[in-house]
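Hey, sorry to bother you again with one of my protein questions. A protein chain has come my way and I'm curious about its shape. I'm sending you its amino acid sequence along with the backbone structure tokens. I owe you a coffee for this, so here goes:
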Amino acid sequence: MPLCEINTNVKNVPDDFLQNCSKVIAETLGKPITYVCVEVNTGKQMTFGATNEPCAIVKVASAGKISLEENKQHARNITQFITNSLGIADDRFYVLFEDLKRENVAFKNRILAE
């Protein structure tokens, strides 16, 4: 049940951005795309390094598949996608990973840990 939230000061994203982002998240985490949820918030008032050049914060949360070694590959895949798709330099955004406890996530009226 991967989640990806992107906040950026970029005003417009490509029409296929959400679908392509879903694919990248599913592939890098090894999770079915049918469970991936992506949210992008554009045109945010943001600064990075005290400038208004394009920047972002990318949050990726998943129940499992988040660890030091796995995150190295996730970071490469996600960074490449954001840079290529949104034109944001790789030194203008952070990627934050969160490993969700299965007992703290519900889907279809049940807790994932059940």
Observations:
- The longest strand covers residues 56-62.
- The beta strands are 3-8, 37-41, 56-62, 93-99, 106-107, 110-111.
- Helices lie at 17-29, 68-86.
